[in-house]
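Internal ticket #5521
Category: modeling
Description: The requester needs a full-assembly model to guide mutagenesis choices. All entity lines are attached below as received. Residue total reported by intake: 655.
Assigned to: D.W.
Attached entities:
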Amino acid sequence: MSPRPYVEVTDLKKVFDVSKPWLNRVIERSPKQILKAVDGVSFDIRKGETFALVGESGSGKSTVAKMVVGLLGVSGGEVTIDNISMTDPAQRAQRARLRRKMQMIFQDPYASLNPRWRVDRIIAEPIRAFNVVEGEANIVARVGELLTLVGLHPDDGRKFPHEFSGGQRQRVAIARALASNADFIVCDEPTSALDVSVQAQILNLMRDLQEKFGLTYLFISHNLAVVRHMATRIGVMYLGRLVEVSEAKQMFSHPRHPYTRMLLDAVPDLAMSGRARIPVAGEIPNPINPPSGCTFHPRCPLANERCRAENPLPINGVACHAVVEGRTLLMPVPA
Amino acid sequence: MSHLAATPPPRLKLTLKDRVAIWRDSDLWLSFKASPVAILSTAVTLLIVIAAIFADVLAPQNAFDPVALNLLDGFAHPMERGMGSSMLFVMGSDEQGRDIFSALFYGTRLSLLVGVASVIFSMVLGIGLGLIAGYRGGKIEMLIMRVADIQLSFPAILIALLIFGVARGLIPPQQYETTAVFVIIIAIGLSNWAQHARTVRASTLVERNKEYVQAARLMGISGFGIMARHVLPNVMGPVLVIATINLALAIIEEATLSFLGVGLPITQPSLGTLIRSGQKYLLSGEWWILLFPAMILVILALAINLLGDWLRDALNPKLR
């Protein structure tokens, strides 16, 4: 039997109550409105790999990330990290120990650093919170070490976040994530707020650090080029559901789910010019009132009656009736 | 790391020199230097504050010590020498021969004391409740904010009168004089906390969802720790503006209460008490007893208000 994966997510669900205030509901006689942000997502992450979640805005990627680290309570399902349940209230004490092993890098480096704190205090915060090293001198040394590790100078610790560029701020955020010797890092679109030229630097830094410390990443992104550069395995999300999970290489060479194909075709690529591609049709529907059956069917060129009626379950990592029935042959194959 | 030996380790604490340097570099200081109104109002406020603090040294007469008064000096006109003590009354004297100029020092001191103390009281209360309401949300937020809403729908002076009246009912009459200052501080403070709470709650709602707060939550830092160390410093800007403007309001509120006779007793006169006693003589021609305390009150409130206006503009990035 293979060892248990480092992170296991099983049938994760999150619903938000987006109803109008009680009084309006009573007067207008409108029912409660429930938004299913995440609807039955399952995947696992092996130690040392980068698992990427991709999808359009509003597909529930960030919600999954927040539930995995425990920033957001789950409405159903289970998250297990290193054999400790993040969702079981009985394992609170174990979870406190796990926290130190688990950090997050956020999307907006302008909001993820407290603007009133100097950088050395920001990086020292997890060190102090988890008592990683004792004594002021040791903390100072450790902060300097971390700053050097992410390509900054130890003296930069005396500056405030606003004195740095976006890329440098993201380096600071990475240093903070590493400060408690974390080995599982959730990255919520860590480069989408950065210039393209800086994105590569940050991604390479993250890969170097992964090699150096054997880090495990859960990498959220909507940018397929970034995901291609980083991911070992990829999960594609659509409207709160995971429609395809594949090895990264396979995903890009042989996309299976029609939605994955659509996403890949939407990537501007010089080599692709002139070839047949599936045009990106329509927009992501309103999750408060999702389409029946397979939620992708209004945009899917292969949809038939079954797709409109029945929600497909993932088989071999793909949740699609067309793939299972072999109807994908009708679709023009890119590349 | 090898280079650590070569470079001196960065210090985590700010020295005073650092703080001065940061301040001199800040937008706030630059905006202050460029605003004559801000400089003038600061100068006036500082002058009045210093005069109030050093009233005992600066005032020519110990105006509220009956021994220092000479009844023959009564109703001296401004710039007139008293008939009894032959001292010069720059701003005239009242019916007991009390030097109005000296009385102003003591009156301002008490007005400022009550104003500052009640603003601090309402700030602590309002910031605390606002932070809890904004950060915790849910039923606690509902409760706190509805109480604030209800209170804000009454004029502050009415609330202060109510609290003052209740306190009067609870405190035995022989202790009125000793407790009057505290009662009025609490009455004015309680009547103003809601604005602070509203401001803080609004800013907290914004800050709470920022990613640095989530990062701190991931570190397992307690709600109180996050509120105190992360959220509070980032919501203080608007609070300082409100506090400054509230200081002027609190001073006026105190003066109003004292003028109505429900504030400070005549033995501990504030500017409001002085105006109240002067108002009796206005129609008989002794205008100076009322005019000078009223002028100081207006100047003080105006200066603090202008300072608050400048602070609001300086801290508002949209107006730059």
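Resolution: model delivered.
Comment from assignee: The radius of gyration of chain A is 22 Å.
Ticket closed.
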